[in-house]
Amino acid sequence: MANELPKELPPADIVIFGGHGDLALRKIMPALYYLFWHDHIDPSTRIFSTVRTKVSDEEHRSLVLEKFREYHPDNYFSDETWAVFSAQLFCVEMDISDPENYKSLAKSLNEFADRDRINYLSTPSSLFGDICTALKETGLVTQNSRVVLEKPIGHDLKSFQEIDDLVAAVFPESGIFRIDHYLGKDTVQNILALRFSNTLFMPLWDNKSIDHVQITVAETVGVEGRWGYYDQYGAMRDMVQNHLMQLLCLVAMEPPRSLQSDSDSVRNEKVKVLKSLRQMSKREVSENTVRGQYKSGVSNNKSVPGYLEDDDELHESDTETFVAVKADIDNWTWSGVPFYLRTGKRMSERYSEIVIQFKDIPHSIFPNDGQPLEANKLIIHIQPEESIRLLMMNKIPGLGKGMRLRPVELELNVAEDDPRSPTAYERLLLDVIKNDATLFMRRDEVEAAWEWADNILETWQEDNIKVKKYVAGTDGPSSSVALIERDGRSWHEDA
Ligand code: BG6
């Protein structure tokens, strides 16, 4: 995997705002280390982390290493590589909302004024405007500067636009990389390969052949020390508005003109899907959505507290940790094909998958012992294992009592030589370094996704639609099962 990527990228300066935050230490730093290890980052690239409390560069490097070891206890580590990589890590103490504090950063960055500058804002989005304005006021934004924004940006369309306007006053759209790490996952990219490099599926990819689509992102973890953040957002803003919407787009979009010639072909198609999502009436919101919140239960064979006690404190909150939605896309291709989405924390199992359920055959010629034939199904498993399986009917070998059929699965996986697949953050950070924004969200995409989500969030609030409790370690509230069963369908379960 590693060797197919370019190695000739010039040195850059990377600044991580919120440098000692969970995301920076858990995902961003390890991704940079792995990119470096695979020679995709020039050894003289410098990585500055802004922190609120001063620590020396040495202490900073030790903390980065300690967290790296904690989150990546695999064997893909080399002391020599770490020694070279870590020598390029620096720590800058600053209050990021005060422009005065940017002077020492400016002094370091200005040593190499022509370098590409990547500003990774791994902070609450309410600080994005202040950081960008301060960067501009301190003369830190050059022609070669870009900015990476973590999701969720804002908590609704209006606040997104306010924040984005401040960012856009400093960086051109081409220099703004709004990250959604689901787009960097290998199997998610494989959806594009599967759909647009094989003629097989294209004629079947519409409402004539497909009955419905299911997208599930289930987690076993709770909020893991992020209660303060999570409680202001909830599953709709934290997961559905971004990750699940992006997966839906990749399934539903029309073929883009190209993946290479510009970053907009793919994004143009995705935005058309988002703009075609049906805005639900209030009645439809109450029928087609489910909000849940976990209570205590057993997860991975361990007793776990409920959401309201998940922070070693007792809280009161109606924030949802589970969402199920039946979404409709109003266009010629997808009219009449529901997309059932669900995501939740503290579910029975950790997995993300997309199921494309094809229609039943129009008429069966097989008696099959009175058993109905199963319709074809394409199951795209994104994590933890990556696989693509096609369920088809097949004759049971032998004479038996006439012709009997059973479903079999065709596995569409390719064994990979390199046992370590790159993480989503590695791929996306490499794209930022290469200045390729194809896999990042454009402003109009985020706006369209917020518009759809806002409509649901507002109805939940206005109509006082409360969370339904579910026991941790289960598959969410029973009303999510009812949501799909009402339509004579059921959530996919592996046999
Ligand atoms: C993040 C959410 O964007 O995605 C988290 O903020 C969630 O709440 C995480 O746990 C899930 O990502 P992954 O890659 O582990 O499925």
Topology of this protein?
Elements: E1 12-17, H1 22-37, E2 46-51, H2 57-71, H3 79-86, E3 89-93, H4 103-109, E4 116-121, H5 128-137, E5 145-149, H6 157-168, E6 176-178, H7 186-196, E7 210-218, H8 227-252, H9 264-276, H10 282-288, E8 289-295, E9 297-299, E10 302-304, E11 322-327, E12 339-344, E13 351-358, E14 377-383, E15 387-395, E16 405-411, H11 424-434, H12 443-462, E17 468-471, H13 478-485
Parallel strand pairs: 1-2, 1-4, 2-3, 4-5, 5-6, 7-12, 8-17
Antiparallel strand pairs: 7-13, 8-11, 9-10, 11-12, 13-14, 14-15, 15-16
Helix pairs in contact: 1-2, 1-11, 5-6, 6-12, 8-9, 8-12, 9-12
Bound molecules: 6-O-phosphono-beta-D-glucopyranose.
Residues 181, 219, 238 line the site of 6-O-phosphono-beta-D-glucopyranose.
* Helical coverage, percent range: 25-40%
Uncertain spans, ≥5 residues at pLDDT below 50? 1-5
Q: Which series of helices and strands comes N to C? A: EHEHHEHEHEHEHEHHHEEEEEEEEEHHEH
The CATH architecture of the largest domain would be 2-Layer Sandwich
CATH topology descriptor of the largest domain: Dihydrodipicolinate Reductase, domain 2
Query: How many domain units?
Result: 2
Overall mean pLDDT score?
93
Strand content: 15-25%
| Count of helical stretches | 13
The outline comes out as globular
What do you see in this structure?
The protein is α/β, with parallel strands linked by helices. The protein has 2 domains: 12-150, Rossmann fold; 183-420 and 444-485, Dihydrodipicolinate Reductase, domain 2 (2-Layer Sandwich), CATH 3.30.360.10. Helices cover 33% and strands 20% of the residues. The chain is built from 13 helices and 17 strands. A 9-stranded mixed β-sheet has the order 16-15-14-13-7-12-11-8-17, sandwiched between helices. A 6-stranded parallel β-sheet has the order 3-2-1-4-5-6. Helix 5 (128-137) links the parallel strand 4 and strand 5. It is globular and about 80 Å long. The two termini are 32 Å apart. Residues 181, 219, 238 line the site of 6-O-phosphono-beta-D-glucopyranose. 6-O-phosphono-beta-D-glucopyranose is lined by residues 181, 219, 238.
